[in-house]
Prior knowledge:
mainly alpha; 9 helices
Amino acid sequence: MGYASVKWEKFPRFVRYANDRETxxxxxxxxxxxxxxxxxxxxxIPDSMGHSGDPAEVWEQLGAHQPEFCGYLHAIAQxxxxxxxxxxxxxxxxxxxxxxxxxxxxxxxxxxQYPEPRYxxxxxxxxxxxxxxxxxxxxxxxxxxxTRLMECAACQQYFVQVIARLTRFCSQPCRLKANPxxxxxxxxxxxxxxxxxxxxxxxxxxxxxxxxxxQLTVALGTMPPRSTILEKLGMSTRRWNTLWRWEVQKYGHPxxxxxx
Length: 260
Ligand SMILES: [Zn+2]
């Protein structure tokens, strides 16, 4: 696993196992939960022989061990007692049995160096189901994952920080849940800001109308008609109507827009 080329997965299998709050909760497992347990148990160790197990036993063993496994992830995420955690992980990873066997699987031509069938030494068999999960965790730590393992501040589930920016939450919903007023406050602020801007523009226009009314009244010797005021200001009838409605709503009757 090249250090620079690590592609981080947000919820790798060992994290999904630790986060699972459904599969191991029931008193007696269903077909579905047994299948889920077998998925966690399936070995991901390269060159692994795999192992078959009774699904009910697999389910029971994984369920019984889950709290301990979560404890290790918690310690890694919080960054304490790492020596003890590494010792436990190493102990589990030692339980991989190397099996020697004859293999007649054709070798790729590029690496062919032994006569067929060849003596094959690298078949690894996890001693128990947990080994494969610990192996995956160890590889994660070896790739530099320790500082990326996070515990969501809202839902407490584990996740891997896949981007460089530090995040305390596993998802956007969790981020919002942790601060529910933030979104609401922002919406309310936007609404108030729009309202204030609109009111300021209306007051500006009313001041312009008032000044135009005074000037035209002096020039014409009488109250000018609406069309003359609008023409002088380059204002639309529609805008006038908006201002008129605003005044009626605010004062109960038109003031500046009253031409009688
Ligand atoms: Zn969360």
